[in-house]
DNA sequence: ATGACCCCTTGATATAAATCAATGCAGAGC
DNA sequence: GCTCTGCATTGATTTATATCAAGGGGTCAT
């Protein structure tokens, strides 16, 4: 059962129907509003419609749940875990266009087919809506449309940054940019380590490099004293300053 | 004076105030609605507010009208001509993130600073709004918000395609993809030629290549009989089929 | 006309990153 | 205990593309 502790509806039990389907906390996250402002805008009929619309889904690591080119039936909001989004060429070359963490939307596009594939990096929890119902939700909750526009704008900025990276940065600059992005968006653990849920292959496909180049670059950074590569997927950033100047090509 | 022939308001002259400031046809384009549905939703007070909000701007070729990192005061809708959008690194390396033609929006981002620069490729006509007023326009015309979301979604799809191109395609595949994109989005002239308004340098900065590689690749395609490179910026696609299989790496 | 400038093309060479190859390590299954 | 498999690291070599360099053909101002 989803955590509802951050939402204050203990006094209004009927409202918890939403929580029961995993919708309420996610819906708050989607709309980026306080739960109370969402709930004051809906009535009992809405509740049943919303409950009906959302399904909580759990996807195991490595499982692909959106196939590029398939009919786009669903719309997702990531609740926990990390998803990789990718596009592929017929001969198997693959470009990961982004990693989506908690709060991110998938399947926004206007097209009736998915423009990308999506695969769980680790265990992923999703809030799934049918796109058809999504459309009626948007009519009823105009805030949500604004929220989606905001999200799309942010993704667009990220995409443009990534285009600069892919088109004009060297391997070292790419890896430095990636580590800093990850450190800014994800959280560091208690030891100050950055936990990267994805494999070297995923990083390579995200940065437009090969596995070997990513590995060599990380080794070089370690030799330079910029980072410490721990066991598994943990990395410590020892000199954020040097990584930053490297990432922007100031060297 | 802007062309109003596509809008049917000859019988309601007062409405032409909008056309007088270059707003009305552009506004229709922005909202992607028939002029009548826009105008039925507004009254005289709205007209003066809208007229006030929009300014028609003409930008000469090569003129940069958005500086990356400057405060984002305005919001633009391209009326005619082609704009190049770009991001740059401190040492001068540049990535063109897209070319914006008639109907495209600029300055959508949530941030209070422009995330990219914009420069006119040829003579560009723009409809300019202050972002502050844009916000109130969005409140009054909810259709517009949906239209912007649609636009942003389409741009996101284009950005992801470009990431695949920049990260994983060879020079030949990149140039082939570019030519086909241009042929699909722009119009061919009467001789079946594609007119590219941008220089080889712009194409290179868009495709993550150098001028020399773009030039050599076009020469190679000509030698292969895929294209014909005319005088100036005109190119004829002789075998769209071969270009398509090349663009997707099927060779 | 002349020179300056910009853009494009083509050739020769250099290099960053890919590819090919070998090895090590850790977890899963038997 | 084993082997098998996937992932990561490191080394040797290749290659696609960048860089360096030269020359041609416009256009514009003098």
TrEMBL record, chains A, B:
InterPro entries: cNMP-bd_dom, cNMP-bd_dom_sf, Env_Response_Regulators, HTH_CRP, RmlC-like_jellyroll, Tscrpt_reg_HTH_Crp-type_CS, WH-like_DNA-bd_sf, WH_DNA-bd_sf. It comes from the Bacteria. Keywords: DNA-binding, Transcription, Transcription regulation. Residues 38-155 form the Cyclic nucleotide-binding domain. The keyword DNA-binding applies. One of its GO terms (cellular component) is cytosol. GO terms for molecular function: DNA binding; DNA-binding transcription factor activity. Pfam families: cNMP_binding, HTH_Crp_2. Residues 169-241 form the HTH crp-type domain. SUPFAM superfamilies: cAMP-binding domain-like, Winged helix' DNA-binding domain. This is Transcriptional regulator. It comes from Gluconacetobacter entanii.
């Amino acid at each position: 059962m989803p955590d509802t502790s951050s939402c204050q509806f203990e006094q209004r039990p009927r409202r918890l129907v939403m929580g029961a389907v995993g919708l309420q906390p996610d819906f708050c996250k989607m709309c980026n509003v306080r739960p109370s402002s969402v709930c004051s805008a809906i009535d009992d009929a809405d509740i049943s419609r919303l409950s009906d619309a959302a399904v909580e889904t759990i996807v195991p690591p490595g499982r692909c749940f959106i196939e590029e080119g398939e009919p786009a039936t669903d719309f997702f909001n990531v609740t926990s875990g990390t998803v990789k989004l990718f596009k592929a060429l017929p001969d198997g070359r693959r470009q990961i266009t982004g990693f989506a963490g908690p709060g991110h939307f998938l399947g926004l596009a206007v097209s009736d087919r998915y423009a990308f594939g999506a695969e769980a990096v680790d265990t992923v929890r999703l809030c799934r809506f049918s796109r058809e119902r999504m459309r009626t939700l948007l009519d009823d909750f105009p805030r949500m449309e604004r929220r989606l526009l905001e999200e799309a704008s942010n993704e667009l900025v990220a995409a443009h940054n990534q285009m600069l990276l892919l088109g004009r940065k060297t391997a070292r600059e790419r890896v430095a940019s990636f580590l800093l992005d990850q450190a800014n968006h994800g959280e560091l653990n208690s030891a100050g380590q950055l936990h990267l849920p994805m494999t070297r292959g995923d990083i390579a496909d995200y940065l437009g490099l090969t596995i070997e180049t990513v590995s060599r670059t990380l080794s070089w950074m370690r030799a330079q004293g910029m980072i410490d590569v721990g066991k598994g997927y943990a990395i410590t950033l020892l000199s954020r300053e040097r990584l930053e100047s490297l990432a922007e090509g100031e060297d």
